[in-house]
Design brief:
Distance between the termini: 10 Å
Number of strands: 3
Helix content: 40-55%
Strand order of the largest sheet: 2-1-3
Strand content: 25-35%
Structural class: alpha+beta
Shape: elongated
Number of domains: 1
Order of helices and strands: EEHHHE
Radius of gyration: 15 Å
């Protein structure tokens, strides 16, 4: 298997992220990322947890993991794949 780096972008928020995916081909890596994006769109947190995370965010106390959870909760559509390439070996 090869590791591929896949860049995803959300035009509305101007946010991007890069995923590293182990796959047998570039097409498979893109497919895996598309499936992961579907999971982000369907991710949901209970209201009290969202409130706690938003409070931490306002105070600048949000960890990277919690920021990702809050972002996934807010994501209503998948990021688009804008580039994929074989990563470093």
């Amino acid at each position: 298997m090869t590791v591929y780096r896949v860049k995803l972008h959300d035009k509305a928020s101007s946010e991007s992220r890069i995923a590293s995916v182990a796959a047998d081909s570039k097409d498979e890596a893109v497919w895996i990322c598309e499936q992961q994006e579907a999971g982000h769109v369907e991710f949901w947190l209970p209201g009290d947890e969202v409130g706690d995370l938003e409070t931490k965010a306002a105070e600048g106390m949000l960890s990277g993991r919690d920021k990702a959870r809050l972002q996934s909760h807010r994501q209503s559509k998948p990021y688009l794949i804008v580039k994929s390439k074989e990563g470093e070996k």
